[in-house]
Design goal:
283 residues, alpha/beta, 8-stranded parallel beta sheet, two-stranded antiparallel ribbon, 12 helices, binds NADP nicotinamide-adenine-dinucleotide phosphate
């Protein structure tokens, strides 16, 4: 495992398991397999409706709490609920703190929610704070409204087809890291079949997926590949025993600006505000 140092000094494992689109049973099984394989980071969210399952996997794993970096995300429907929404999130996970708490979408009263997260940070309920899917102008709004805690992480769609170089340059001076969601393009077969990954895979005796994940790590990006397959889960963590050269990194850079999978429209953002699940109803 390698680690990233966040701008508040917290050490974050570079890679972890994503649990988007997993049922509670799938998330519990995947997180259990990941923790048994040596993963130290699991990512969930209110909206994934599997926080309880992730909490169960952590509790049953036998891994010491301080050895697991747990990240979750507040959904916009709870932004105006204040501290009870954070306490309910912790209760579902069965934890008295999370390592990373993220505002999931830049809609609704996210500045008030940010200030509540800062209070949770000061109270020791959260070790680091992040933003998800925030465009640069809204990140700037949070940066200027934040008291002493600047975002430690911004999580966005990021993969070889969409490398987020402008955002990386903007966040650099704040020491805020990028976490890649869809690090594998959500498993896009055309991305995984790019000849450069096959070729480098042969050179290093790794799979194309492992080459992509290694590229992310060398970019200084945190990654949370999702997988329900224990073999893939183990393979995805087996990326710390080789290093791509600068020339190879430059070849992968050439794939940038080719494709994005997610379009953030005002309509989509407005629709998120209307999605108000009963998070406590999950198994
Ligand atoms: N903040 C946000 O708004 C947001 C949005 C989307 C996602 N996320 C987070 O980012 C995480 C990652 O995104 P994602 O899971 O949607 O996409 P992803 O990690 O880019 O790709 C997952 C897909 O790749 C496949 N895969 C994984 N490892 C593989 C391997 N070694 N070989 C071949 N195929 C492999 C998986 O299938 P198998 O199950 O068969 O392995 C799955 O279909 C999510 O789980 C979630 O935690 C956050």
């Amino acid at each position: 495992m390698e680690y990233l140092k966040l701008n508040n000094g917290v050490r974050m494992p570079t890679m972890g398991l994503g649990t988007f689109l997993m049922s509670p049973a799938e998330a519990e099984a995947a997180a259990t397999a990941a923790l048994a394989t040596g993963y130290e980071h699991i990512d969930t969210a209110n909206a994934y409706m599997n926080e309880r399952a992730v909490g169960r996997a952590i509790a049953k794993s036998g891994v010491a709490r301080e050895k697991v970096f747990v990240s979750t995300k507040l959904w916009p429907s709870v932004y105006d609920a204040g501290m009870p929404a954070i306490d309910a999130t912790l209760a579902r996970l069965g934890l008295d703190y999370v390592d990373m708490l993220i505002l999931h979408q830049p809609v609704g009263d996210y500045l008030t929610a940010w200030h509540t997260m800062e209070e949770a940070y000061s109270a020791g309920k959260v070790r680091a704070l992040g933003l998800s899917n925030f465009p640069q102008n809204k990140i700037a709004e949070v940066m200027s409204s934040a008291s002493e805690v600047k975002p430690q992480l911004v999580t966005v769609e990021c993969h070889p087809y969409h490398q987020q170089r402008d955002l990386r340059a903007y966040l650099g001076p704040y020491g805020t890291i990028i976490e890649a969601w869809y690090p594998l393009g959500h498993g896009d077969a055309s991305l995984l079949a790019e000849p450069v990954f096959e070729e480098l895979g042969e050179k290093y005796d790794k799979s194309p997926v492992q080459i992509i994940l290694r590229w992310h790590v060398q970019m200084g990006t945190s990654i949370i590949p999702g997988s329900k397959n224990p073999v893939h889960i183990a393979d995805n963590a087996d990326i710390f025993d080789f290093r791509l050269t600068e020339a190879e990194m430059a070849r992968i850079a050439e794939l940038d600006n080719t494709k994005t999978y997610y379009q953030q429209t005002e309509e989509a953002l407005a629709s998120y505000l209307k999605i108000r699940p009963d998070f406590d109803a999950q198994e």
